[in-house]
Input
Amino acid sequence: MQFFRFAITRAFLAMITLIMVSLIVFSLMELVPGDCAERYLAFKSSQGGAITIADIDAERVRLGLDRPYLVRWGSWIFNAFQGEFGNSCILRVNIAQLLGDKFWISLWICLASLFVAYLIAIPVGIISATSKSPWANNSLRFVSYLGLALPNFLLALMIMLFSTVYFGDTLTGLFSKEFRDAAWSYERVMDFLSRAWLPVFILAWSATAFAIQTVRALMSDEVGKLYVTAAAARGVSGRRLLWRYPARHSLGPIINSLGFDLNRIFNELPIVALILTLTEAGSLLIEALALSNDQQLAGAIIFMLTASIVAINFVTDIILALTDPRVRRSILG
Amino acid sequence: MTNTTTNGDVNVDQKRKEAYFTAGQGQLIWARFKKQTAAMVGAGILIVLILAGIFAPFLTPYDPTIDGRNKDYVYGAPNVPKFCDDNGCSFRPFVYTFNRTRSIATNFRWVTEVDKDARRYLTFLPEGDKYKFLGMNFTTHLFGVDTGKIHLFGTDSTGKDIFSRTFHAINTSLAVGTIGVFIAFVLALIIGGISGYYGGWIDSALQMMTDTVRTIPAIPLFMALAAFMPDTWSSETRFLFISMILGFVGWPTLARRVRTHLLTERNQEYVLAAQLCGASAGHVIRRHLLPSFTSYIIVDLIISFPYMVLSETALSFIGLGLKDPVNSLGVMLQNVTDPDVLLNYQWHFIPVLFFITLVLAFVFVGDGLRDAADPYADTKK
Amino acid sequence: MSTPLISVKDLTLSFRTDEGLVKAVDHVSFDIAPGEVMGLVGESGSGKSVTAKSLMLLNPDNAVYDPKSSITLNVDDQSIDVFSLKKPKEQMVIRGGAISMIFQEPMASFAPAISIGDQMVEQLMIHSTMTQSRAKEISIEMLTRVGIPDPAQRFSQYAFEFSGGMRQRAMVAMALSTKPKLLIADEPTTALDVTIQAQVIDLMKDLVKEFHMAILFITHDLGVIAQTADQVAVMYLGKLIEKGSVRQVLRNPQHPYTRGLLDALPRLDDLDTPLKPVAGDIPSPLDRPPGCVFHTRCPVSLGSECETIIPEFITNKDGQQVACLLAEKDAQKEEAEA
Amino acid sequence: MSDSIISTDDLSVHFPLKGPLFGEQPVVRAVEGVSVDIGKGSFYGLVGESGSGKTTFGRALLRAAPITRGSAIYNDGEVKYDLPTMNKQALTDYRKRAQLIFQDPYAALSPRMTVRDIIAEPLEVMGLTKTREETDERVREIAAKCRINLEHLRRFPHAFSGGQRQRISIARALVSKPNFIVADESVAALDVSIQADVLNLLKSIQKDMGLTFLFISHDLSVVAHTCDHVAVMYLGRLVETAPTRELFTNPRHPYTKALLSAIPSLDPDNPGNPLKLEGEIPSPTNPPPGCKFQTRCRYAIDLCRKEEPKLDKLGAEHDVACHRWRELADNPQISAA
Output
């Protein structure tokens, strides 16, 4: 019951965050010069149609853009919570349909990268924090810094070009040509997996570098604590000492930061997507955000990305409350 | 005799100790920083790169924009200065003259013929392209060649000198980073400072706000904003706009750090001691809070710097950031996306090396400073 | 004399630091007999904790032991060279097997996110072949024994849910659950209030009798030593300077430092004598004085002799040992007179 | 009393705790209804275990903790201030007259300032000196008094050991020539061999400058040796107060007795009085009803559990807050009812 109340409170706070986010995103999209009506008609005029101010005004009324700012925001957020973002400014199709699978594929690729990053970072970070050899320590440090200094778009590019030259396959896209528009099937899944590893690897590249730094710093802190010495004094040793004591106790802050790690990956997704021409995933983002000036679509995408971060934060809060007795007791009393 | 030497040793020892005892924060940090080889190497490289960036117009022979291009040497390979060849040696380093042709026979690729007999000798402090430095016009460059042009790193698709472009790009990237860091820092100082100094509900509200901003994926959001940058904007406006965007991306993390420093520092006993003397908020901030966290703030700034450079690069890379004639490392990296470049004109990767070195140098210096920034950590029991 | 339980000989240990090697323990030798309580007294920086941790090889990695140092543990008719124990399996005997340790800060010495009971059961299962349920039974028995109310419920609680005194009791229960022959208690009562300290001291005294184990009791508080120890060793700047039975050392201190320490202590039974501080400050371990380490503060220093000669231990007729040139001279004089 | 430099009446300090959004807000009653008179020129000891509220009480007297209720009067003969209500100007003046010496000599000195700057800071803040020369002179004077080597004034705190740092901390507190000093556990962090030195320094300074000290400590033997009057606190309440010798020879409150008997004797053959306390000090957020000590008191009766005892005068200067002190004094063998 207590726990239920805690979960409800957290969910409520997550909602508030999301509403605040939506206000920020919506306002920024409003600040951008020109609105949806102008943009569409400008687009139309470039197709050859003549337009007048009256046309634009009529379009505004049709789109409801003449209503007050807060009312528009209210209706936008109300619809957004139901997964309905209206029509794209330019493409004139329903955004929810337009995004469809694409958003989920992108999200899963990012989550997979996050998973891979920590899969590598946790053991490496622990080794680098506890290893006694300065050589191993320094080289791990250097490698993890290289992960920062060699940006992943560059890495993506190099891998792609390398494979073009030596394998004749660009490795771009998430599906081979024959599966691009096919319905989901076993073969399509396999094809997807055979190609998805590259974006996952590339997105995980600098995420891993960051994660190693986090794990290393946390572990170095924990290893020096008295309770680890005390456990060693009781005869706990080796891997058991490492995993059950410092590693377990540095898990909390790691879980806590997962949401922000995901955020960082989202930050890199569009660029990587552009290079790997992941039309199914992030490059729609780029198209919407950067190329077509479609504020309705851009707002929807950013809102959904943020919503997934808020969701992750909510889940990690709950996990933390379940796994850390200190947090658990402070909730349950 | 032996006695005097030992006495001398004792005196030296005493002096060394007294120097340590009277060393202020800066000196202690420097002493600790000096011990870290990696950070010192990084600092050396960083200083060289920063100077190279600042004095790029003088150090490089040509204008980095289209104005300084060498029409006759498009996609030209780097010229490596030599002292000796089959025709004998020379005290002055020289490069060869190139003749380039392309025709249907060569598949319309440029074919370069080296004319080993026509040496171009390096000259120092020649007059060349006009540039502005500190508001004044100059035409003197560090080096050039007596006839024709020299391209140490080769040229790009339009014949622009990659050497000149790289150095200018370092300058631009550093400038964007500096402005970005500055904006982030001012915002962080105001918001984190208010939050940390006043605490209570103001702190809670500002924390909620900071966390909200932190959940928004900044780059996609600003990509969206950057997309609405009118094409009519001048390159300077774009430059400022990008810097501002980077500043707005960076502030929440910095603000959190400022706040944490302030909160811990505010509760120190020596701050209470000052307050019990009736010290005003201004005195406490000036004498205690600022000196205590400037070192941390500098560390944070240096650590966040490479991310600014990286973000700028990323934005410019997808064509949303800076554009010619302003060129940054991101613009330079964009050039290597062409498969043709990878296969045939690999010298375009030289700026990539500079970029990696720059970021690595920053990271190592930041790391070393972080370890050195709290010289009092181990004196507290 | 029967074989000691543990015998420390010429223990010398330095720490590798940025400033070079810093000597923390310098030629320390002492024996502890089975069932005996040895008090190790010293101020901050005296190296008493480091000495104790050496017995369990618990010092951090930058510790460098002098090769001549030796620690021999005699249990079950076996003589174990502690420094030869390299593998974790071999080290079990000195870590929670025959030797257990309790620390100054009970809060920090429990893992915060593992329940007290789990940590106790873990230790029992590492050191024996018993089943989990048996280990739990023993743990709860031990918690009962150290006077923790509701032990079965407390078993599944965490360190942060215990009060300071309870935590230290639980620490004692855990340390004793494997029935060690030697308990190292590193300032076990320093962080506690006096009334709680009294409780914990009482408890430890009872348990010594019951379990017939030896204790190495480390503290800076001579009162605590007087009430608990049989033997006392006094350390100053990494050197052992005096040892003997608790009555000898407290009633008839031989070393000027021990005397100074006793004179500087405010005593409740004598409110009139003014406190006599030991002159000067404790030197930093970075510049240990040559010769006798105490000569910089010694009120009876012989001057240049004390500044250069490192005094050896001499034993008086009662078996009390002191490392002081002055005491040495007095002894020689007496011998000559006799 | 007219010769009291500080006299409090029913002084209470409560801190609100972060509680649930709605409903009753928890409060820590750190100090509750404490009335003391600190005689001018005295060395007044305040003793208690952790959580007894002694530190908070000391800070409240310096207006570093909020006074929730009750009064506190400062009167040094020159000026008289009502601490809870004094205005800003009075507070500024009061800061010159009342100072604090901290417990931890490491945390109390800014590592970024030289010893000279640390000692001079109060002078500069309060504007007590006009010129730098005057400041320097004042600093040197007070440093000499606190036996700080004048050549060390340009060093930073990291050059010093605990005892030396504490002397610097004392010099800083004294440089404004205050009349009243709160010394909060000022020797607790020091080694025994250094502790006596600092205690002697405090005593000699008190005599020289005619100061009044509120000496807060958990260590009864230290208090016994330095103070002339002692107050014992338990869970925010004053339980007993008396001149030192009277208190140590004739303690009346069961808690004072237990505290005294808990100090380990230096004589190995004298295990001391077996009056040991059970349990631990309750939390000040949730204090027991009636006498705050009843949960640990072997003499507690129903009355103790219901009604809180008031301070009872049993001598000119000896007060005790216990329902049963008379019975216990008559018959020490009395057992719990």
